[in-house]
Amino acid sequence: xxxxxxxxxxxxxxxxxxxxxxxxxxxxxxxxxxxxxxxxxxxxxxxxxxxxxxxxxxxxxxxxxxxxxxxxxxxxxxxxxxxxxxxxxxxxxxxx
Length: 96
Fold this sequence. Notes:
Elements: E1 3-11, H1 14-30, E2 34-38, E3 55-60, H2 63-70, H3 79-85, E4 86-94
Antiparallel strand pairs: 1-3, 1-4, 2-3
C-alpha cells in the first residue's frame, strides 16, 4: 500500500533551498518516491487546525520506503539544508 510523505514548508532562504531541492529529489526517487505535488497552486478550503504554506507530496511504495528515505545515510547530510533554510511540518501518511 502506498504511503505519502507530506511536507508543509515555509521557505526562509529561497536560494539555498533550491540547492536542497536539487539534492533531495534523486534521493527520494532512489527509495521509490514519486513527486505528486511540489509547491503548486493551492486553495485552502478550511483551516481550523492549521494553515498550510507550501505543500510537497511524495508518494512511496509503502511506509517502510518513506521512512527509509527520511532516515537514509544519503539524506542525512541534505536534511540540515532543509532545516537551516525553511520551517517545516513533515509527516508520513499511510495510503488507503
